[in-house]
Write a structure and sequence with these properties.
Elements (H helix, E strand, L loop, with lengths): L2 E6 L8 E7 L2 E7 L12 H4 L1 H4 L10 E2 L8 E2 L2 H19 L4 E5 L5 H15 L4 E3 L6 H10 L17 E5 L3 H4 L1 H13 L4 E5 L5 H4 L3 E3 L6 H14 L5 H7 E2 L1 H9 L3 H8 L3 H13 L2 E5 L1 H4 L4 H15 L8 E4 L6 H6 L6 E2 L3 E2 L3 H11 L12 H10 L4 E5 L3 H4 L3 H10 L2 E6 L12 E4 L8 E4 L4 E5 L12 H15 L12 H11 L12 H7 L2 E2 L26 E2 L18 E6 L26 E3 L1 H6 L7 E6 L2 E9 L7 E5 L31 E8 L1
Parallel strand pairs: 6-7, 6-16, 8-9, 8-12, 9-10, 11-22, 12-13, 16-17, 17-18, 23-27, 24-26
Antiparallel strand pairs: 1-2, 2-3, 4-5, 4-18, 14-15, 19-20, 20-21, 23-28, 25-26, 25-28
Helix pairs in contact: 3-21, 4-21, 4-22, 5-15, 9-11, 9-12, 9-13, 9-15, 12-13, 18-20
The structure holds iron/sulfur cluster.
């Protein structure tokens, strides 16, 4: 008999609901959940082929370990593997202190997995060295929200797409990266042909091609554009001065700054027409205006300022907290939001608390029943692997992510993994570049097997349910952490029992209590309510009968005086600049049918129909100048590394710009993958690295 199980798609932050069809404990099909408010039954190519990715031949099925780096790993028992990990971590902590160990996690983990990892590091071990691949993805969006609105909370919701009159899409190829949102945008445009869609992107992506106005700005010039739009709206009398006066601080300083950003100056910086800047500003100023943005803003050394400069536009026009209006960051990974809710990053604490805040630290310590949580900030992703390389972090635990593919400046990361004294990798897949560095490899459950909850881009929490049993000796991520933590408590002779959990519901309920009174208060939610009434948006306080579709409708922000803060952002440019030696811009991004490092999508043959192999896309102008024809093999290089791959003529990139997708790694190309070339430079506030842009040279082979 075919069993149907409601769950979510495990790819992107749209968070589509799925119904998994299984028979005899095997996943045989997947359909969109018609009742899920993120997708109403629709799925993109990735989501609709999820069942084809549910194979065992690419899975880690048994624990493996090695006691000597010169020896291959061998199959081991869970007891042997976890006891070895406990002994190595305990000895390292005792000898070098808690900050000599670190955990590097993933936005793919469920909220409950994240919660126990965070508690293990900050509550039991006493280190804030917990960071995740969300640092590479959403941390500038987080910082942008916090510095302007006071909390890491996207104010808008998907329904706003249906109500907006101006949709500003910045740094996002939504058609490829968030396809189901894009379907909704297409439907909104069809219903309301007056809806103006403005796309800000150096590339002429599918999203840009369908826009009413494409602002093909030069890489990294977003802040100049947003300041220029504000300049025009100021000049045209399109600002909402009553809103600015009543609900914000800092406009006078910003006004002085944007006075300089004339359309002429901005057109020169951004490489676009003055008239287009004016048109975009007028459309935005008229409203209601919704902006959707993603990695083009976030993955930048000025990511926080890019986010803030865009949010400035909303605050200055009062385009926030009402239907069809607001800034709306599109989350990359399925549960980056849930991870942040439990404080699963080096700078955060549970319930959207800040590590730097002594009161917040005391609150979390009390909730956990521990003496204190450590004050010293943990290492963010780039800092963490740097610390591993220079030896201050000696043991690292990597779960559900593949930093040997996804981090920038990959050669440096590989050196770090080589240098580490002890590496634990906890993963479902056996085809990752990171796996080969594991001293202990722990088999984890994955999509279709896991249970817990996730939060999508619009703050909506959905239950994730298992359709089939976990294969062989794999275990749930949270179970692995709890088992390790309990053993470590005993080994360190800690007189505590911080990890009494036997179900994910117990973990969810404890997490729920940490949100009481906070901006994301979910004390009114339970597994039972989510099961019975379906996915819900936060906040959802005790006594509430529904969550909040949009935030800040009352003009009260999460700042001490309740007022939002304008940020005086100025244009600064990219980390790497083109010059005579490296004359071409290299941009990176996603393809429609692949996901991140392809550990899952790489196993589905039909997902290669859209793009079979990695290529570098080039303009006709650049190909002609170098006598390169379509399909010619070229070497792409800069000071950090080189790749060899075919060239492809593309009308999507401008002259002097090139594009390589992020998905292929060392296993499928000559070279480590495009991230090997990317700079390790990061935004000083968000610590998010600039994974979108570098400068390269190119030679025909
Ligand atoms: Fe999955 Fe994202 Fe596609 Fe929805 S849009 S089916 S969440 S990959």
């Amino acid at each position: 008999m075919i069993k149907q199980t409601k769950s979510t798609c495990c790819y992107c932050g749209v968070g589509c609901g799925v119904i998994i069809h299984s028979e005899n404990d095997k996943i045989i099909d997947v359909k969109g959940d018609p009742q899920h408010p993120a997708n109403f039954g629709r799925l993109c190519t990735k989501g609709s082929t999820l069942h084809l990715s549910a194979k065992l031949d690419n899975r880690v099925l048994y624990p493996e370990l090695r006691t000597n780096r010169d020896l291959p790993r061998k199959r081991a028992t869970w007891d042997e593997s976890l006891d070895l990990a406990v002994e190595k971590f305990a000895r390292t902590i005792e000898t070098h202190g808690p900050d000599s160990v670190a955990f590097y996690l993933s936005g793919q983990l469920l909220t409950e997995d994240y919660y126990v990892f965070n508690k293990l590091a900050k509550g039991l071990i006493g280190t804030n060295n917990v960071d995740t691949n969300s640092r590479l993805c959403m941390s500038s969006a987080v910082a942008g929200y916090k510095v302007t609105l006071g909390a890491d909370a996207p104010p808008a919701c998907y329904e706003d797409i249906d109500h907006t009159e101006c949709l500003l899409i910045a740094g996002s190829n939504t058609a490829f990266a968030h396809p189901i949102i894009y379907r909704r945008i297409e439907a909104a445009k069809e219903k309301n042909p007056n809806l103006k869609i403005v796309v800000v992107d150096p590339r002429q992506t599918d999203t840009a091609k369908a826009a009413d106005l494409h602002l093909a700005i030069l890489p990294g010039t977003d802040v100049a554009l947003f300041n220029g739009m504000l300049h025009v709206m100021l000049w045209e009398g399109m600002l909402d001065h009553a809103y600015i006066e009543a609900y914000t601080n800092g406009f006078a300083e910003l006004k002085e700054t944007v006075r300089e950003y004339t359309p002429k100056m901005v057109a020169d910086i951004c490489g676009i027409k003055e008239a287009d800047i004016i048109t975009a500003a007028k459309w935005f100023g008229k409203g209601p205006s919704l902006s959707m943005y993603c990695m083009g803003l976030n993955q930048s050394i000025h990511g926080t300022e890019k986010n803030a400069a865009l949010i400035n536009l909303h605050l200055a026009t009062g385009q926030i907290g009402k239907p069809g209006a607001g800034p709306f960051s599109l989350t990359g990974q399925p549960n980056a939001m849930g991870g942040r809710e439990v404080g699963g990053m080096a700078t955060l604490l549970s319930g959207h608390r800040d590590l730097a805040n002594a009161e917040h630290r005391a609150e979390v310590a009390k909730l956990w029943g521990v003496e204190s949580v450590p004050e010293a900030p943990g290492k963010s992703a780039i800092e963490m692997f740097d610390a591993v390389k220079e030896g201050s972090i000696k043991a690292i635990w990597i779960a559900c992510t593949n930093p040997a593919h996804s981090m920038p400046d990959l050669n440096s990361v590989l050196e770090a993994l080589d240098t580490a004294e002890f590496v634990v990798v906890q993963d479902a897949f056996n085809n990752t570049e990171t796996g080969q560095y594991a001293d202990v490899l722990l088999p984890a459950s994955t999509w279709g097997e896991k249970e817990g909850s996730v939060t999508n881009s619009e703050r909506r929490i959905t239950r994730v349910n298992p359709a089939v049993a976990i294969p062989a000796e794999a275990r749930h991520d949270w179970e692995i952490v709890v088992d390790f933590a309990q053993r470590l408590e005993r080994r360190l002779a800690k007189n505590s029992a911080l990890f009494p959990y036997t179900t994910t519901e117990q973990i969810f309920n404890e997490h729920r209590e940490t949100t009481r009174g906070r901006d994301l208060d979910i004390t009114g939610l339970s597994y039972a309510l989510l099961n019975e009434q379906g996915p819900q948006q936060w906040p959802f306080k005790e006594g509430d009968v529904t969550g909040k579709a949009r935030l800040y409708a009352d003009g009260v922000f999460q700042k001490p005086d309740g007022k939002a803060q304008f940020v005086n952002a100025v244009y600064k440019g990219t980390a790497d600049k083109t010059d005579a030696r490296y004359p071409l811009h290299l941009l990176t991004g996603r393809l429609r049918d692949q996901w991140h490092g392809m550990s899952r999508t790489g196993n589905v043959a039909q997902l290669f129909n859209h793009a079979e192999e990695p290529v570098i896309q080039m303009s006709a102008d650049d190909m002609m100048r170098r006598s390169i024809k379509n399909g010619d093999i070229v070497r792409v290089s800069n000071k950090r590394g080189s790749l060899v791959l075919p060239a492809q003529l593309s009308d999507e990139v401008k002259p002097s710009q090139t594009f390589i997708p992020m998905h292929w790694g060392s296993q499928s190309m000559h070279g480590l993958g495009v991230n090997a070339l990317m700079p390790p430079n990061y935004d000083k506030t968000s610590k998010q690295p600039e994974l979108k842009h570098t400068a390269i040279k190119l030679e025909k082979l």
